[in-house]
């Protein structure tokens, strides 16, 4: 089994929280637990026009190629995909990439076409089990023979509602205790409240930061998440959260696809202001070339390219490989607003 870059980088960050330049990139390919058929992304013709959605097999082919490339540190998947790639195909055995599964799927990410649940207060739910992630089987007798994923994403969306938030935290406590007993690692995702008006707009980022600190204050190191995943809160709020506890490793989520400049600027700004992880799903999945896109993300966090320069380099690389860009260089260099919730 090959050593994992995740473990090496986290160790380096904790050894020198202020001086370490390590940065983790995760590809979030778990969208089938939210969007259904739309999760796999669109295919396009030679002129950059959409033709059809990828099949599940094609979606997984992209994951295989990205793992083989080896520039991301984590591949986040649904449990069913992890069973195929991690347990059956063993593609992570000789890779530095760490497999991870979405460990819960709360109701605010049930985003089927026609669904009206995206803006209703979240209710806890788990499709996946730890034993299934690690061994493909439910029986406890198999839980010590880990051959699958041993890292999971646990997600909470607070609603600023006593009963709903109590329910969410109770479910998280139960998961956390089970995970600690079984030595299953997790990272914690906290979305912005998805209920309209739940928190005044100017207080949302502070509400999320305070909720995270309050949630973890009673949790000892054995039960804490390996890192966080949150919407990018802006420079000051991110710096405040990072400064509060430099061992609480903060990661940012990508939100909706947006332009190439959106993604490149986000990872640059997040790193600049203290984040140590970026978890991009649709931003990677909707790229014309996922491998080239990831290469440029890595170049940015390694200080080889600035965001605007990286957009130009990405377009030049697409042209070299005869891949049509879906936007002009001018349009793709613009910064636009992208979503801060899963939907």
Automatic annotation (TrEMBL):
InterPro entries from the xrefs?
Aldolase_TIM (IPR013785)
Superkingdom field: Bacteria
Protein's name in the database: Fructose-bisphosphate aldolase
Species per Swiss-Prot/TrEMBL record? Caulifigura coniformis
């Amino acid at each position: 089994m090959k050593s994992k870059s995740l473990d090496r980088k986290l160790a380096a960050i904790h050894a020198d929280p202020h001086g370490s330049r390590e940065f983790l990139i995760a590809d979030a390919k778990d969208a089938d637990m939210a969007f259904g058929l739309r999760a796999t992304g669109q295919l396009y013709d030679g002129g950059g026009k959409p033709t059809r959605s990828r099949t599940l097999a094609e979606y997984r082919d992209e994951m295989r190629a990205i793992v083989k490339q080896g520039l991301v540190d984590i591949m986040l998947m649904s449990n069913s995909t992890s069973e195929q790639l991690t347990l059956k195909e063993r593609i992570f055995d000789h890779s530095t990439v760490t497999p991870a599964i979405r460990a819960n799927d709360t109701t605010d990410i049930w985003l089927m076409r026609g669904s009206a649940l995206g803006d209703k207060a979240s209710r806890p739910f788990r499709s996946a089990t730890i034993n299934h992630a690690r061994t493909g089987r439910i029986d406890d007798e198999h839980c010590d023979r880990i051959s699958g994923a041993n890292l999971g994403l646990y997600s909470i969306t607070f609603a600023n509602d006593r009963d709903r938030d109590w329910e969410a935290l109770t479910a998280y406590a139960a998961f956390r205790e089970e995970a600690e007993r079984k030595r299953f690692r997790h990272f914690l995702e906290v979305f912005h409240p998805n209920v309209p008006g739940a928190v005044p707009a100017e207080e949302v980022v502070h509400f999320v930061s305070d909720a995270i600190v309050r949630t973890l204050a009673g949790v000892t190191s054995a039960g804490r998440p390996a890192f966080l995943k949150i919407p990018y809160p802006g420079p000051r709020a991110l710096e405040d959260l990072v400064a509060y506890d430099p061992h609480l490793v903060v990661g940012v989520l990508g939100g909706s696809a947006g332009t190439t400049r959106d993604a490149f600027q986000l990872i640059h700004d997040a790193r600049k202001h203290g984040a140590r992880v970026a978890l991009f799903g649709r931003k990677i999945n909707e790229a014309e070339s996922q491998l080239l896109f990831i290469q440029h993300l890595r170049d940015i966090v390694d200080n080889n390219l600035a965001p605007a320069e990286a957009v130009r380099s990405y377009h030049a690389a697409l042209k070299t490989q005869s891949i049509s860009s879906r936007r002009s260089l001018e349009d793709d260099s613009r910064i636009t607003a992208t979503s801060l919730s899963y939907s």
